[in-house]
Each structure stands twice: as structure tokens, then as C-alpha cells.
């Protein structure tokens, strides 16, 4: 299958995709801040540069895009028809890196939360995800994963 846009346009479109301050991340940050939580953003002092670092709770939060980080069973975790072998290798590397970062953080005494993009698409989902995350932050649990089933 061929791409519907030329290579230069596709390149420009892909370069516009950012890893920080995405809409889902901003929505979750607003909801957590409104609940009284304070955090650092993209701290280079913490392995993996988590999206949110809450030192008071010894916790980090990653807001993962379902497409890039391969949310299992999610309808947004598709594989492009163009150059599928390239994309599978890229996705496999992302998943392996995520696994390594999570393990390193847990071994270092951090608590790790992963919030998937599909759980932050609608305002009611953002509120429900923030509520689950708030409860987790005040608990003793090591990890939590929040997806669209919220």
C-alpha cells in the first residue's frame, strides 16, 4: 500500500508529533493539580524523564500514547501499512525501553504509574483517571496502569 501523501509532507507531519506537553498529558496535569498534587515536569534527574515526578509521594507518572508505546488491545495501537517491518522494529524498541525504565525506577524505590492516552480522550475519562491516580498516589502500591476501561 502506498502513502496518501508525498514523502516530504509525511516527514513534516511526523516531525510535528511531540513527546512532551501533549493534550492528554496537559489534561491529566490540570486534573491532578486541581486535586492538590504538585509535581515536577520531565525531570532529567529521574531515569527515563517521566512526564510527572511527585517527589513527596516517591512516584512518577508516564502518559503513554497508545500508538507509540503499543497499548495492548487498544484500537489506537495500529501498525502503518507502509513499511510495517520498520514500524514493528521501532515499536518493539519503544516497548523494551519502557520495560527497562519501569524496572530501573521500581528497583530504585520509585512508584510507577502509566496512564494511556485512550484513558484521557474525554473530560469524564480524564476525571476518572485522575481520581484513580489520586487514590493510588495516597496508597502504598508500587505501580498502576490506567487504560480506557476506566
Number of strands: 5
What is the H/E string? HHEEEHHEHE
Strand order of the largest sheet: 1-2-3-4-5
Low-confidence stretches: none
Q: What is the name of the CATH architecture?
A: 3-Layer(aba) Sandwich
- Characterize the biggest β-sheet: 5 strands, mixed
Beta percentage is 5-15%
By CATH's scheme, which homologous superfamily applies? VSR Endonuclease
Sheet/helix structural class = alpha/beta
Radius of gyration: 16 Å
Mean pLDDT score: 91
Number of domains: 1
Distance between the termini: 35 Å
Kindly identify the CATH topology.
Answer: Endonuclease, Chain A
Number of helices: 5
CATH domain class? Alpha Beta
GO molecular function, one term: endonuclease activity
Function: May nick specific sequences that contain T:G mispairs resulting from m5C-deamination.
Family: Belongs to the vsr family.
EC number: 3.1.-.-
